[in-house]
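Database export, one record per block. Field names are fixed; values are copied verbatim from the stored entry.
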Amino acid sequence: MPLLEPNPQSLRPTDAGPAAPDRVADARASGTPGPLRRDLVALLGPDKVLHRLSDLVAYASDASPYRFVPQVVVVAEDLDDLSAVLSYAHGNGRSVVFRAAGTSLNGQAQGEDILVDVRRHWTGIEVLDGGARARIRPGTTVLRANAALARYGRVLGPDPASALACTLGGVVANNASGMTAGTTRNSYRTLASATVVLPSGTVVDTAGPAADEELARAEPALCAGLLALKAEIEADPELVARIRAKYEIKNTNGYRLDAFLDAATPVGILRGLMVGSEGTLGFLAETVFDTLPLDRHAVGALLFFPSLSAAAAAVPRFTAAGARAVELMDGHTLRASVRVAGVPADWAALPPGTAALLVEFRAPDEAGRQAHERAAARLLPELELVAPVASVSNAFTRDPAVLDGYWRARKAFVTAVGGSRPSGTTLITEDFAVPPARLAEACTALLELQARHGFDAAVAGHAAHGNLHFLLAFDAAKPGDVARYAAFMDAFCRMTVERFDGSLKAEHATGRNIAPFLELEWGPRATELMWRIKELIDPHGILAPGVLLDRDPEAHLRGLKTLPAVEPVADPCIECGFCEPACPSQDLTTTPRQRIVLRREMIRQPPGSPVTAALLDAYGHDAVDTCAGDSLCRLACPVGIDTGALMRDFRHRRHSPREERLAEWSARHFGLVERSARLAVAAADRIRNRAGDRPLTVLTRAARRSVRPDLVPEWLPQLPGPAPRTLPPTDQAGAAAVYYPACVNRIFGPPAGQRGPSLPEAVVAVSQRAGRPVWIPPEVTGTCCATIWHSKGYPGGNRVMAHRIVEAAWRWTDGGRLPLVVDASSCTLGLAHEVVPYLTPGQRARHARMTLVDSPVWAAGELLPRLTVRRTLDSAVLHPTCSMRHLGEEEGLRRVAAACAREVVVPDDAGCCAFAGDRGMLHRELTESATAKEAAEVTARHFDAYLSANRMCEIGMDHATEGRGYRSALLALEWATRPE
């Protein structure tokens, strides 16, 4: 055991209450049963089988109110793996559930036996026919697909609010639609073809020219059965009429029976049935979508009304005027949205009855937008609008930033309202549809029903399509609350069907919550047909039992999960999964959601539980050590949950008093630390030049084993040599700014083989060249932005350095008169924001008067307008850092690069490199996993320059791209503007 190995018990919850009814049983503490684990490892290999209890619990929760712990998790890499798992399930009487993003709202991504991860190795998009179509793998998010299509002026039809996290496989499997898709732009209407793996293992490409002949040879009984069902349905005019009527409004409840009416062949029928089948009929290995015009010319407004019924009554007018989206939000939703970044704070004071419509028009050109503006202007005087708080304007705007803010508030409906729910309660998200003309009546009826059963109102929806969403919060650990929820669901389903002839599921798919009510909506005849479809395609019941079809009338009450209170920073989490695509460790260990899920399971357990012990054994590495701490999860989370901050706190909890004292000592004596670090880099560089990297690798790995892997960095071949011993001379007199070279740029030099000035020399030179000279204070050596201690969870050291650097910066900038330019974006973020909680009140006042500027922003705003570009590169690829995203300053890097290169590329998969100071040297596998997709894009072609603005991120990207030579964009700017 390493000398300083932390004690896992330091993270044991101290405030756990009574054991929860849905806690994982002690018998499962050892994880996957031995025979099952051995079978699957023999079949697939050990790397594809996740069997520890920590893995099973991490995958047990999705965005729904349900929780089912699988027996094992398989990380499938290809179709061979899928076929092998299905064959094994068939031969051993087991069941299989597919899981991609886990953003489903009704338990579709959960199973109690074999759960198959079909996200990690199933990403990618190929744009076809100039953007008219796109071939997309099922683990690709909607946001990522649309980013690729945007270059062609195209977009996918489905546009769910969870687009940044939900994947196309899930979108098709649930027939998720979103704000604008309605019944004409959804997956059923825009899916051109799909590659399907049937439960038998047969693979069907529905676009294949001989697909029907091949399917008939492989599955003759299936083909005959599908055609027989088609003939039976078409022979029943009343049933045909009922099916057509059901799909005149949005409906994702049950199987798509209109597939039998819309398609003529078995393969065509199968393509239609797969849409909305929720993984119960087969696996969607690939999809091909017909895309739609992006229509970039938008105009929209957020219009406020005195009541929900008044807002609903205005919807038909905007629909008739051609609005692309008409979104409804009630007062509770609007007030809860103040948790969302950019939403006006005064919305918290909106009267309870207030409601709003988010209306947006889109056009392909300016003339079309102007026509929409005229139509909207004619409507406004006729509406019953109110302005109950100062921020309300009730005006249409073209401003993309304003419209983006409106959409953030709308898309955060589930998470914002869910985040404001009473602590410890479970959240149910439901959606239904009624004929659009009856929307106002349905709103009133829903509010009355919620009040009658003691639930707070929270309503939003796609009003243009008669589609409403609502939320219910209750304590799943209390039988009385569960009974109240059950009574509400029974009354709600009967109201929707019997009063409005509506759809119990408009776009979230049937799921576990509505499966018992399927027959209520469709009647015995159609429901019996759906059971026969399932038995025909999946005769052994292998796939997703209970997800879409269930004969148990109380199935929706089984598996309800409790959400016990956890640390305050994470307690608002409803486990939606929006954070996961941004997480650097998502393909390595755990995600922010899973870190919280695991924590909650510990709290569900009684004292002395072997389950808690097993989870704690894995949590240190899987959750705490391999968290990059970049807090991109906070930006992705609609309510700003910062799981990175929680992991930093956990790092602090694991530190011994001695470690904390050493950290504080290092902050007080950082001049010595800095000199020692530079000397160590120089010595290592000399050893490498003489003997290669191997001796350094062997030495550091031995030290890591002896001391602790999370304390001793590992030598990496791409580490650069030392920085110059001295900083360039500058004059204080006449300086336009104070320049603060970050400690990493005082320790590490440029990539191996790159000649020219150091970064400090380049910043000084290019600033002087632009007539905006900078001054480097002589005492910068021995100071730091404090991020070192912040990221590692050492509050004492953080406080010492925060006080020191702010006092020094106050002197250097002449009391805030001059801006402070920082040449590493993570240090800019640290100085601008992360030091603030550690300052005294007086220091905070001084800090607020200082201007802190990231070097690309300084270059773009102050230098470029005053410089002459004398030479350019053909191409440059950028790595925008996570700190730039937090600062909102990525554009500065793009502008500097655009001045230096004729082609500037930001990879579609650019994200956090996870090098995180030295974390990439402590856990190199973290950076390698986090950068895999971005590195694949970068290395697929040649670029003349590889640019960023943070030395440690540049080192991380060099490691990921096998030494491409990432460097600061300001070095490129100095070269591009250097006189002949």
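Remark 1: The two ends are 60 Å apart (CA to CA).
Remark 2: The longest helix spans residues 670-691.
End of record.
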